[in-house]
Amino acid sequence: MSGHRVADPAARCSDPVAGALVAAAFAAISSRYVLARHQIAAAVLDADGSIHLGLHLDAMVGRAAVCAEASALSAARLVTGADLVAVAAVRYPKPTEPAAARVVPPCGLCRELLLDHSPGIRAVVPDGPHPLLVPLGELLPHKYVGTKWPAHLANP
Ligand SMILES: [Zn+2]
To answer: How far apart are the C-alpha atoms of 11 and 75, rounded to whole Å?
Structure first.
């Protein structure tokens, strides 16, 4: 932990689902932040109302890093097969940055991954002062669809 007081960005969420997920992700990264190792946490809500947390794992080789959203997806799948309905991720500031945590949208890889596993999932994205909850599919038009999975698994 950096020691400086960082505001919870959930206070700026007008949507209650977005607020709950952002608060959960903020609490997680606030307690587990380590400079250059864990900068982002994510929270995934399942259709039964449970929230699953994930932590960003940075790496010496950048492409070996694992996003918080992927970690949260894995955490969810360890305990439930329920549909995943929403995701949010929060980046904690470095000690040298202004003391403001912020909502970050899923990266391109996570958009692919989350939509493969939960086509109907929504994501909290920054949008001016108030983060928005939007269908993730709208953030990835013309998503890649391969032939690796049978059709019933590709489109559950
Ligand atoms: Zn990602």
So the answer is: 26
